[in-house]
Every structure is written in C-alpha cells, then in structure tokens.
Amino acid sequence: MTGEPLAFPAPIYVTRPMLPSFEAYSARLASVWDSQFLTNGGAQHCALEAALNAYFAIPHVSLFNNGTIALLAGLRALGVSGEVITTPFTFPATIHAVAWNGMVPVFADIDPVTMNIDPVAVERQLTAKTSAILGVHVFGTPCDVHGLQAIADRHGLKVIYDAAHAFGTKVDGRHIAEFGDLTMLSFHATKLFHTAEGGALLVRDGDLKQKIEQLKNFGIVDEDEVAGIGLNGKMSEIHAALGLLTLDMVATEKTRRAAVARIYRSRLSALEGISFTPELTADAASQQYFAIRIDEERAGISRDRLHQELKRFNVVSRRYFNPLCSSYACYSDLPSSAPHLLPVAQRVVSEVLCLPFYGGLTADDAHRICDMIAWVAQH
Ligand code: T4K
User: How high is the pLDDT of residue 3?
Assistant: First the structure.
C-alpha cells in the first residue's frame, strides 16, 4: 500500500438494520389499521410467534417488547433466587436483569477462546446460595453448553442463556435454544433479525410458557385474578409486523454477512497480532458481530488506538463490552468482581474490537476497511 487510504464520505457504523421496502411494511400496517388492534396479542403478534416457532422448531416462543424485559421475566418465571453465576463480559442488560430481580450476580471468568463463561470458573463460584447459571453466547459464539449443563445437573441449578447475539447459532446441528431451561433473544434494531425493539423467550416446557405469558401481562390470569408481580412486556402489532418482513430477509442477510466475514478473515489474518472469534460453519453461525482481537505487543498498536484512528476514516468500530460489568460502580464491590479473579476477562476486554458488519457493506467497503486497519497498524 502506498498512501494513506481515503476516508469514507459518510460514517460506516458497526451495524445497520435490515429494512424491508417501505411499501411492503405499509401494506402490513394497512391490515393492522383495518383490525384496529395495535397490541395485546393481535394477528401480527400471533403470526410472528408461529413463524418463529417454526424457524426454531422449539415448542414455545413468547414475544417481548425487548430482550431485557424478556430476561427479567424469564428469571422470575423460573423462580431462581439467591446467587446467579454469570459472565462479566456482556452488555449491562444481562447483569441488570439479575440484580433487578433482587438476586446477586456472581461473576465467573471467561474462556480465552470463546470469550464465554468458563465452566471451570463457574465451579469455583458455587455456594449453597447458587440457584442458576446465566451464560451469554457472546458475539454468537456458543457457550460450552454441555459443560455448563453437567455442572447444573450435578448441583440442581437452572441454566439460562442470553442469546441476544445468537439468533441463528447452532451446536451439534441443534438450535442454541434447545440447550438450557430458557433462552432469551433480542430483536433490537442492531440484531440480525429484528423488530426495531423486541425480544423473546424460548422454552420447551408448556407450564413455564404459561407463567411467562402471565408475567409479561402484569401477572393477569383472567378478569378476576392477578397471580403474581408481573410487568408489561408485550410486543406491539407495529413491531411484530416489521418482524414478519425482516424474518424473510434473514437468509440473504446471513449470506451477505458471511461474504464480508470471509474478506475480513482472509485479509486481516495476514496482520501480526490480530485474531478472530472461532469460525463456525455457515449453517451454525449467527453472523451477528465480527469481533477481532488485537494483541498490542504483537500488533504494535493497542485496540484503543486502532478504534480511535479508524474514526479518522469514518469507520465507527465498537469496543463491546468495555468496561466489564464487574467494574461498574453498582457491581464493583461484589467479592466476585475482584479483578484478580477475572484475569481472562480483564485481558479480553482490552483486546476486542467489533468491526462494521452488515449485509449492506460491499466487498469493496470491506477491503477498504482492511486497508485502513493495515495502514493504521503500520503507522
Ligand atoms: N444481552 C446482550 C448480550 C445484549 O447485547 C443486549 C443488547 C441485551 C441483552 C439487551 O437486549 P435489548 O433489551 O436491547 O433487546 C446496542 C443495542 O441497543 C443493544 O440492543 C445491544 N445489546 C448492544 C450490543 O448494542 P449500542 O449502545 O451499541 O447501540 P447504538 O445505538 O450505539 O447502535 C450501534 C450502531 O448501530 C449505531 O452506531 C448505528 C447503528 N444503528 C443503530 C440503531 C439503533 C442503526 O443503524 N440503526 C438503528 O436503529 O447498544
């Protein structure tokens, strides 16, 4: 490469949402208008729930207004209490859902390759108060679902997964939601499949689904009875209508993202000190984020400097999930937040950078971003 690469004329963000044509969405909205049902389980909601049931081949899907509320309700529905062992390397919502439910998050260190909660570290944090393990399939890479389940079986614990990044992730050919007692998905606009704002809980147990449905509708059983302390977690018809259209776009979007990922992997693997999350097969990968890791010593540049320098080229990468949840003021006093107990997470959080990753990026865009990274690393 000779001169400094040219900046993009407009910002290139870490992601961009899939958008159906405005006409297609308007047509769907016309039927919502005709029905005069805007929320509370109307036709769009029922159709989306059925479509996702079929997509995941899982017995029960409960739609929510976002993933955070879904996780709050899911933890409550499972009746977990006391201590929940979880990862510090996640979005705040994961840990807040535990704390909002009046439970204590207990942080366990993560695996250096998958960056997900490490079963060996989970074992070390077990106490008589532990009632659940809450794993996050970070960046769509699956947790060690078998290792975590084995611990849960030995100690009578529930296993909950935050699969906000793992819409299409599979393990052993099975969808990720087939593992654990309950799986949460986020359908936020930044997610592969989205409803602008939205989320879901996926479960196999019919009684649990019923409890979840009550909790997400204020705890109401019927006109005469309120059974528990519920909340309002309902997805509106406006959001469900959007989801019915974006669901049809997922397969093409995944193929496009896979093409971008191939360019990133082949070009950036030539750079010293840059590594990637484990590569999954096209069928098993969620294609949610493209995270690289920068080993400052070998790369000759820190993650933070690369992040900053890329902005000069109008490339807005993200340092997900910096800082660690264990270092937030609201959790840093917990005994499990002590940095020396989380050495892998401490290292990983200083190394990860999520690059722009969405189907609208052209091959040329991806090559230009690689040129910029190479240039910044050399200067
Ligand atoms: N668990 C995990 C592991 C999660 O990652 C999340 C959410 C949750 C739980 C909670 O699920 P929800 O309650 O959100 O359903 C975003 C999202 O707001 C958040 O949903 C997501 N994780 C997190 C990883 O990313 P920010 O602060 O990075 O969002 P923002 O607004 O900076 O968006 C990133 C980029 O995306 C923008 O620079 C431009 C682009 N963008 C964004 C939006 C919203 C668009 O092009 N269009 C848009 O509409 O948190």
Answer: 83
